[in-house]
Amino acid sequence: MRRAVCFFLFFVTLVWAATAAAQKVAIARTPGDRRITHRVKAELSALGFEVTLVAEASSTEPRGLREIALAHAAVAAMRASPSKTGIELWVVNPSTGATAYEEVVTVASRNDELLALRSVEVLRARLLKLGVLSGVPAPPSAEPPPGTVEPVAPPRPAPLPIIGVQLLSADVGASYTIEPSALSNYQSARLGLTLAPAAWWSASTFAMLPLRASEATASEGTARVNATLLALAGDLHLRRARLRLSFGAGAALAFLGVSGEAEPPYQAERDRLLAGVPFARLGGSAAVAERLVLGLELLAGLAVPPSVVRVDRDALAEWGRPLLSASFTVQVGILAHEP
Questions:
Q1: pTM exceeds 0.70 for this model
Q2: Residues 115 and 175 in one domain
Q3: CB-based burial, 74-93: b 16+ in 10 Å, e otherwise
């Protein structure tokens, strides 16, 4: 127990020492720098830094900023150059103890206040980049000279937050199929499952179940086609935040139930046809919640072999030559990727 308490106190001491060093800045004094040095100290103190002023004897050569910072357990050291148009800056890398930044901060014209503000801004930016600071407010920006008009940038829209890709999801929706032949357009219900091992590709299976028959009418009577499709497909995806653009291809098996109503003296018949439908598709979707995606898809395919609807042995229409369909889907995530 005593060892645990001692270890805890030792750990707290190390954390306190590291935090204190991260917030400590040493300023090396030079002759005639009183005004700018006190201005820099005031800006650093306002940001919560502990500032140490280090006097240097004029009879000796100035010490290096690295030596001054290490001697006073500071994360950085600063010094106004003799001309007072620049401030020397040295920053330590807290992970290695080596020099992270060594530079001279300058301004275009002789202005102590502007130089002090600029040097503090640069120091803060360097410490933030090293991960030493977090949550320290930015110093006030120096006011531009009178008569200067600063351009105002238009506000940027906030980016959409990224939503994770679901490993397995189910979709339900509705499809509208356009028939370029004598058959009429028709609607279908859409059900499917999608497996997405990665964000850039997926494999899916879906079914299109007829809600209304496609019809073709002639003087001899009316022919109706109920088309049920079972399909497999693969897709490539381009994603940006919550938006997705998809390109894919696949093949479907079409089960066609053909029936008719005949005018006397003709007789109606029933038949079942089977066709393969290779297709390509283009889709776009938007994630509206973590596991909810709304999508729109355009599909184009070609029935093989041709499925011909005949009246009195004459060809009246061909189903699926080509097959053009638009679908609106609601996709719900079932299984998410492991974090």
A1: no
A2: no
A3: bbbbbbbeeeebbbbbbbbe
